[in-house]
Amino acid sequence: MTDSMLAMQALNQGDVRVVEVPIPSPSDGQALVKMELASICGSDLHIVDYGWLVDEYPLRPGYPGHEGIGTVIDANGTELTNGDRVLVTPAIWDSLSFAEYQALGTNFLTVLPEASDQQPDHLLMAQQLGTVIFAAKRLPNLLGQTCVVMGQGSAGLFWNFVLKHLGAERVIAIEPIEHRLQVGAGFGSDDRIGDTFAAATKAVLELTGEGADVVIEAIGTKETHGQAMDLVRPDGQIVWFGVPQSAEPIPFDFDTFFRKRIGAYSPLGAQDELELSSFRQALKWIDDGLIDMTEIVTHSFPLSRADEAFKAARERKDGAVKIVITMG
């Protein structure tokens, strides 16, 4: 093995390049993983393009990739074994998965099911699906409930599925991109709204009367953050799931929040959960065929074309839902 590797690096806001850097050495409690795949999350775009969590550019090589699959090549005295294929789920602020190698704590690694019939890029979706499963654990009983999911990217599609799995009677999806809206039907959406902002709010209120019992904001803009409060009924529940576009304060309509007695939370911490149980549950669902990732994983690019991969993720054309980067 050589001493250097290729990694994606954001040199400036929105400027993604491939650079050659030293292969990291694992410290105590870490293993060295040869990365195979990594996928682009909406939060990656918010970091690379808008500067969320960014103090200055260039960003660290490999950052902010946090959805990955790879093989342990140096277990470094940990409980893992060389040759273990693992789901890589680091915390977002220390995530370097857009690189050929990564050293990270074993608390962020889950061994993949042996002899799985599922494609590796389908198993890779367990990272984002796992964060949705984790977030959904704080929801109230959904039996007979009406839910709105704002956004039908991969996270929103997974929310459709999980909400229906938990007993929601009706899931209303909001998404202006037609192909994503139609994919949502296969993941559990009962009603699909292609409008946005005021028109979408009007459509939801026409369907529900006072608003939805539960609203999932899976986009992360300041506009949709506020709109969620218009979509939820009095005494309803909001999950602000979408990662912010930037660290700038988001205007907050406390009057509406107060008068409607809204409950709300923003889930963070699936990577810190005991034994990474939500990610393990997601892997099991995918491995068992309970959820089909065929329409989720739509595009793949080699690491050498990382700039094209990010461009495809930004533009969301040609049926794009989830973009995967391959390392070799």
Structure, described:
This protein is of the alpha/beta class and 328 residues long. The chain folds into two domains: 4-127 and 270-326, Quinone Oxidoreductase, Chain A, domain 1; 139-265, NAD(P)-binding Rossmann-like Domain (Rossmann fold). Helices cover 29% and strands 27% of the residues. It is built from ten helices and 15 strands. The protein has helices at 42-50, 120-123, 126-136, 154-165, 178-186, 197-208, 222-231, 254-259, 277-287, 306-315; strands at residues 4-12, 15-22, 30-39, 68-74, 85-88, 101-105, 109-111, 146-150, 170-174, 191-193, 212-217, 232-240, 263-265, 297-302, 322-326. The strands form three sheets. Strands 3, 4, 5, 6, 7, 14 and 15 form a seven-stranded mixed β-sheet that branches. Strands 10-9-8-11-12-13 form a six-stranded parallel β-sheet, sandwiched between helices. The protein has a two-stranded antiparallel ribbon with strand order 1-2. α3 (126-136) crosses α4 (154-165), α3 packs across α9 and α6 runs parallel beside α7. The radius of gyration is 20 Å and the shape is globular. The model has no long low-confidence stretch (mean pLDDT 97).
Topology of this structure?
Blueprint: E1 4-12, E2 15-22, E3 30-39, H1 42-50, E4 68-74, E5 85-88, E6 101-105, E7 109-111, H2 120-123, H3 126-136, E8 146-150, H4 154-165, E9 170-174, H5 178-186, E10 191-193, H6 197-208, E11 212-217, H7 222-231, E12 232-240, H8 254-259, E13 263-265, H9 277-287, E14 297-302, H10 306-315, E15 322-326
Parallel strand pairs: 8-9, 8-11, 9-10, 11-12, 12-13, 14-15
Antiparallel strand pairs: 1-2, 3-4, 3-6, 3-15, 4-5, 5-7
Helix pairs in contact: 3-4, 3-9, 6-7
